[in-house]
Amino acid sequence: MDTPQDVLVERTGSTGRITLNRPRALNSLTHGMLETVRAALDVWAEDDRITAVLLTGAGDRGLCAGADIRAIHDDAKLGGAGGRAFFRVEYPLNELISRYPKPYLALMDGITMGGGVGLSAHAAVRVVTERSAVAMPETRIGLVPDVGGSRLLALAPGELGTHVGLTAATMTAGDALYCGFADHFLPSAALPALLAAADPVAALAGLAQPAPASELAAQREWIDHCYAADTVEEILDRLRATGLAEAKEAAEQLLGKSPTMLKVTLAALRRARTLPTLAATLDQEYRISCAALAHPDLVEGIRAQVVDKDRNPRWSPGTLAAVGPEDVARFFAVPEGGDLGLAR
Length: 344
Prior knowledge:
Elements: E1 7-12, E2 15-20, H1 31-45, E3 52-57, E4 62-64, H2 69-77, H3 81-98, E5 104-108, E6 111-113, H4 115-120, E7 125-128, E8 133-135, H5 149-154, H6 160-167, H7 173-178, E9 184-185, H8 191-196, H9 200-207, H10 220-227, H11 232-241, H12 245-255, H13 259-272, H14 278-293, H15 296-307, H16 325-329
Parallel strand pairs: 2-3, 3-5, 4-6, 5-7, 6-8, 7-9
Antiparallel strand pairs: 1-2
Helix pairs in contact: 1-3, 2-15, 3-14, 6-13, 10-11, 11-12
């Protein structure tokens, strides 16, 4: 249940500040929270007193862990109407952030995943710290990277985005900067100075430090080779054939994911490379997400990870061989009730 305090909206000087305020739930997003953020951004876009927007998360654990997936689980069991309504607010908000007319600064400190990436990684100014843990973890729960994440992953160097998207790997600050999910590195000890600044965007120039090394960048050779394959099955074969411990671990990660969602994710990432805009990518993601709400693997994945926490999902179907091209194609069809239409 939403409360008026789930999002704090205030003006500090000429800066509009949005604070996601559900720290006990890692600031996970509800429908009402998205509507509050959207309303504030719409008002501030026309308010000459506001020269910049600053997004932060309450508490000391992170910006946002994503959507309230337990609520999505419960809604999907009832037919998914609430989930579709949620996405119809969330995805246009992600697109608005990408073209917001004033500097929008997102502090991706701590856990920043899923829907949290959607509210931050499309911003004009994206800041990570040594505590940042950035991920698109959707394949862990029988879903596909969304909130424009499939575009960010598709445009990452080489095949790093394919690796991160399929395995649901967590990126460090250095990884997020290298993969195009962030722009600036700021030590967490400098956050109070940034938050106290009259102009946080200007203050960032004097506070930011050189980017830390990316662990993923150091593994480009085997990642690029393995994930350049055309199918999930061939990716697995290549991972196993490298003889590298890191590649073997990646293969094991893939084998624990929904076979259907792995194949849909790979198709979505490949298609996203050819789509011209974020809006077009979000349209594609809306189709996929609506189809996922009707697929048993979403409810089962959230059950296994969040509800019962047995970490033993029973996917349907349970093998990659049982997922055919026609099964994947269904996820890209226009859903009942119409398309999102952001790219029109």
